[in-house]
Specification:
This protein has 143 residues and is of the alpha+beta class. The protein is built from three helices and six strands, in the order E-H-E-H-E-E-H-E-E. The radius of gyration is 17 Å and the shape is globular.
């Protein structure tokens, strides 16, 4: 039935702020912005129907990771606007975790902290059962 996984989509409260984070700080590139002005009504009507959100108007950006192979989709609801909910703890159901591959994790964590990003820990060493070693850290995006 399932044949693959498409790009992860995140609902964001402020697209410009999210762009500063994902593009400017993490190095993603804007691949596409949707909908085109000529197709706005069709896109919004479709999105309203598929998500059952009355009066939905959206702005969508497809971001390409620096590896050129993986993508994120950011969706901002221009309408209806809702208040930003309180931040969930990393352990709470419904929290989204996106694993990013990074080289130079200690330097990356320093850079995130310098940009006032909430980083939960310094990089923690991890070794798989078959001996592959890496470092892991968790941090929050703007939303």
């Amino acid at each position: 039935m399932i044949s693959g996984v498409m790009p992860t989509a995140l609902t964001v409260s402020d697209m410009d702020r999210s762009l500063e984070f994902y593009r400017d700080l993490l190095g993603f590139r804007v691949a596409t912005e949707l909908p085109p002005a000529a197709e706005r009504e069709r896109w919004d009507r479709y999105h309203e129907e598929v998500c059952r959100i009355q009066g939905a108007q959206i702005r969508v950006l497809y971001l390409e990771a620096p590896d050129g192979k993986s993508h994120l989709e950011l969706i901002e609801y221009l309408s209806p606007k809702v208040p930003i909910p309180p931040r969930r703890g990393i352990h709470e159901p419904g929290t989204t975790i996106i694993a990013l591959e990074v080289s130079g994790s200690k330097l990356a964590v320093e850079r995130l902290r310098a940009a006032a990003v909430e980083v939960l820990s310094d990089p923690v060493p991890y070794t798989t059962d078959d001996g592959v070693s890496s470092y892991t850290t968790y941090f929050y995006d703007p939303d």
